[in-house]
Specification:
Layout: H1 7-18, E1 40-44, E2 47-50, E3 55-58, H2 73-85, H3 94-106, E4 112-116, H4 119-134, E5 138-142, E6 155-156, E7 166-167, E8 180-183, H5 188-198, E9 202-207, E10 210-211, E11 217-218, H6 221-234, E12 237-242, H7 253-261, E13 269-272, E14 283-287, H8 289-292, H9 311-324, H10 329-350, E15 356-360, E16 363-367, H11 376-379, H12 384-396, E17 399-400, E18 409-410, H13 417-435
Parallel strand pairs: 3-17, 5-8, 5-9, 9-12, 12-13
Antiparallel strand pairs: 1-2, 2-3, 4-14, 6-7, 10-11, 13-14, 15-16, 16-18
This protein binds pyridoxal-5'-phosphate (PLP).
Length: about 425
């Protein structure tokens, strides 16, 4: 298509004049893979259509929230009804209680939950709560885990263990991240050493249990078990950032997956977002009553939001959660995701392309590597040029995956076996190119 007839191209040019980089969130700009972002006109089920009215099978689903697919009739209906009743009141509504009850029903580690509007807000509030509840400042996070763009959380590893992290963004003063200790994911000895040095000063360990922001990397069961034991031993809180995995990898979220392997396992604080809003701006954080009662107006930890518990967003989230808690929902979704992952693996194997993949529930990741990576440094060993060939090869064939190799993918209930088969066939053609 020539630039003059590519409407994505002309929209991108226009956008770049008024919006930095032409996008309102950086990964959308295609900087990692090159080319022109697809401007979405509309979406339905497993598909979206770009500015040229070209259809794509969507494996992003708004980065996870669209677990039912786009435009699910029950969700659309509940949102339409909510809109006619009012957009926002700045006063409590019954629907907020219903959504809180629905969340707590499925994630029993939480006895109380506070609703907010974005994952970033939920993550930074959970950190403040952990610090307020323990009276401690330091905390551990892991390289490759993303917890939103709050200052104290935008940190990469320093020069060595026991040194605190460096800001990953300009505008974050070094003083603000001096309490953030960044460790390698799945590295038990390093975790033990950090606790030996700083354990009594740690407010929390914050972790993505199945990391979805360095593609798809699971915390190993022994690593997670050690996180739990050390937090308990030293009086630090274990904070699960389940913004991506919550209600996405299982109805009980990733913590239910670890509880199957580690009897009695639960985190202290859970951070949620994405799926619980069903595509509307909604997120949450919660935990045991004694911790949550530290929050304003009951306790000394301040947290607030003009649009928190928004009536339209809560309607969207509530209907989404009710739909996905129907019997058999996650079994069917998991089967479909598994068939995608298995199909991609056999297509790559048929062409002799080094490839591996993993999935849980409706979330997956694949790598142009021969073994599943255990940490960020290994994920980053992926050959960029080969990933870009795969990305653009799929895009040209009407399959939309994340435009960066460090992102996970998502299957929705609306994806059909036919969509999966088409995707695998498209990938097989691209693997032939990669094999040359
Ligand atoms: C998406 C995400 C966030 C940030 O959520 P926003 O709504 O984008 O602010 C935080 N943590 C994790 C694990 C996420 O995947």
């Amino acid at each position: 298509m020539t630039p003059s007839t590519d409407l994505n191209e002309s929209l991108f040019e226009r956008a770049k004049r008024v919006i930095p980089g032409g996008v309102n969130s950086p990964v959308r700009a295609f900087r990692a893979v090159g080319g022109t972002p697809r401007f979405v006109k509309r979406a339905q089920g497993a598909y979206f259509w770009d500015a040229n009215d070209r259809r794509y099978i969507d494996y992003i689903g708004s980065w996870g929230p669209m677990i039912l697919g786009h435009g699910h009739p029950a969700v659309v209906q509940s949102v339409q009804k909510a809109i006619t009743e009012g957009f926002s009141f700045g006063a409590p509504t019954e629907r907020e209680i219903e959504l809180a009850e629905e969340i707590l029903k499925h994630v029993p580690s939480m006895e109380m939950v506070r609703l907010v509007s974005s994952g970033t807000e939920a993550g930074m509030s959970a950190l403040r709560l952990a610090r307020g509840a323990t009276g401690r400042s330091k905390f551990i996070k892991f390289e490759g885990c993303y917890h939103g763009h709050a200052d104290a959380l935008l940190v990469k590893a320093g020069s060595g263990l026991a040194t605190f992290g460096n800001p990953t963004s300009a505008g974050v003063p070094a003083e603000v991240v001096q309490h953030t200790l960044v460790l390698e994911y799945n590295n038990v000895p390093q975790l033990e050493e950090a606790f030996a040095l700083h354990g009594k000063e740690l407010a929390c360990v914050m972790i993505e249990p199945i990391a979805g922001n360095m593609n798809f990397v699971r915390a190993s069961v022994p690593f997670m078990q050690r996180c739990r034991e050390l937090c308990t031993q030293y009086g630090a809180l274990l904070v699960f950032d389940e913004v991506m995995t919550g209600f996405r990898v299982a109805l009980g979220s990733a913590q239910s997956v670890y509880a199957q392997a580690i009897p009695g396992f639960k985190p202290d604080v859970t951070v949620l977002g994405k799926v619980i809003g069903g595509g509307m701006p909604l997120a949450a954080f919660g935990g045991p009553r004694a911790i949550m009662e530290q929050l304003a107006p009951l306790g000394p930890v301040y947290q607030a939001g003009t649009l928190s518990g928004n009536p339209v967003a809560t309607a969207c989230g509530l209907t989404t959660l009710r739909e996905i808690s129907q019997p058999g929902f996650f079994e069917a979704l998991s089967r479909k995701t598994r068939s995608l992952v298995d199909g991609l693996k056999s297509a790559a194997a048929a062409e002799g392309v080094a490839f591996t993949a993993d999935c849980q529930g409706g979330m997956f990741g694949f790598f142009l590597l021969s073994e599943l990576p255990q940490n960020y440094a290994t994920v980053m060993k992926t050959d960029n040029a080969r990933f870009n060939t795969l990305f653009h090869g799929l895009l040209d064939r009407g399959v939309y995956i994340a435009p960066a190799l460090y992102e996970a993918g998502f299957v929705s209930a609306a994806h059909s076996e036919e969509d999966i088969a088409q995707t695998v066939a498209a990938a097989h053609e691209v693997f032939k190119l990669l094999a040359k």
